[in-house]
Design goal:
Radius of gyration: 21 Å
Oligomer: single chain
Number of domains: 3
Strand content: under 5%
Largest sheet: 2 strands, parallel
Helix content: 55-70%
């Protein structure tokens, strides 16, 4: 039975770092942010320059707080929720400017006149292997160098971060994480752990269907986030059915269930890309472990995990499950510092804060480059409306 952490002797939590040392640790991210946003394109207007400067300051300030407080999840969540809110704002505005609607005719999608999205990446594999053709609804489908660059960036960061991609780069997950943060406590507390296997079933089904139908089946039929991005224009009964499915899945998996459970239910129970990313946790050099010599199984780490990547059994083994997103929630929740950041091949007690720093430099560099540009675009859109 879980124990209240208040009855446990606490480990000594590290005191906040000094401001000077925190600034020195933040300096690489500051330089990276300035490189990303300090010299915007010459043709960009004044408000876009302001949005870029705000974004650089925002991302640098959050990293500084991570360094100063030793806390990861709280500050990462501020970034992630901001990304989830601002992405649809900038994206939808661009769609309305370009073609006056969020809906796209199916022939336009087939022709590759839609923006790039990472979600279909696992769906490309079998069609590419068997037919040497990319079945990808994206504007870069006709440019092999562009798609190679995008997939290359994804692969390089995935080899380092594993499923950490879903906590630092997914421009959809912040929506459900933000909704999950609203209620003070969960109204549904017990979730059947067997639901964890559903994303793998969805992944397998979508990969096979994408080969059979020669289209990215998940994007065409099941992606909840089509409700707030770009969807197939409802010019037929099939198009109408697709859009109803998108709206219902978004309402249930991204809004209702996260609010009731305080978990990222779409990520934990449905997303095939998340399941695919989990595979790379096996080869990623960074992981989260549990130092059993410190652990008194209060299971606060399990309760804190936003996508059910800890169980009683895994805690007893001193490890997270394969689906761990490396968000840091369990590390920050542990009152005894038993849950630690870890580099594979080292002792469990070897400098966990150093492992955290090494992971965060790579993860936050990606967050600045990928998520930061989206945040800047969303801010620029808002500024153009209010100024």
């Amino acid at each position: 039975m879980a124990t209240d952490a208040r009855t446990l002797p606490l480990a000594i939590r590290p005191a906040p770092r000094g401001i000077l040392r925190s600034l020195l640790l933040t300096l690489p991210i500051l330089i990276w942010s300035l490189l990303m946003f300090g010299n915007p394109q010459a043709q960009a207007d004044r408000l876009s320059h302001i949005a870029g400067a705000i974004t650089a300051l925002f991302m640098t300030a959050l990293f500084f707080m991570m360094m100063r407080t030793h806390n990861t999840y709280r500050w990462r969540r501020i970034f992630f929720v901001s990304l989830g809110i601002l992405f649809p704002i900038g994206f939808i505005h661009n769609l309305l400017v370009m073609r006056g609607s969020m809906g796209i005719p199916i022939e336009e999608m087939i022709a590759g006149r839609t923006p790039f999205c990472f979600m279909p990446i696992p769906l490309l594999i079998l069609p590419a292997v068997f037919t040497r053709t990319l079945v990808f609804p994206g504007a870069i489908v006709s440019n092999s160098h562009s798609i190679a660059a995008m997939v290359g960036i994804w692969l390089a960061m995935t080899l380092v971060m594993g499923k950490g991609w879903c906590s630092y780069a997914c421009f959809f997950g912040g929506i459900e994480e933000g909704v999950a943060a609203i209620p003070p406590r969960a109204k549904i507390r017990k979730l059947d752990p067997r639901w964890r296997y559903l994303p793998w079933a969805v992944l397998l089904a979508m990969v096979l269907l994408s080969l059979a139908l020669f289209e990215p089946a998940y994007c065409m039929w099941l992606c909840p986030f089509k409700a707030v991005t770009e969807y197939v224009a409802a010019r037929s009964t099939i198009g109408l059915v697709q859009n109803v499915i998108f709206i219902l899945l978004f309402a249930g998996l991204v809004i209702a269930l996260p609010f009731l459970t305080k978990k990222r239910t779409q990520c934990a129970f449905f997303c095939p890309f998340g399941a695919f990313q989990s595979i790379f946790n096996k080869i990623s050099i960074f992981e989260v472990k549990i130092n059993q010599s410190r652990c008194k199984p209060c299971l606060l780490c399990q309760n804190a995990c936003p996508n059910l990547s800890l169980s009683k059994e895994s805690v007893a083994r001193g490890e997270t499950l394969l689906s761990c997103m490396k968000c840091g929630a369990c590390v920050d929740a542990c009152p005894r510092q038993a849950v630690v950041w870890h580099i594979k091949g080292t002792q469990i007690a070897w400098k966990p804060e150093r492992a955290r720093l090494m992971f965060l430099y790579g993860a936050w560099a990606l967050a600045v480059m990928f998520g930061g540009s989206i945040i800047a675009q969303g801010l620029a859109t808002i500024l153009h409306f209010v100024v």
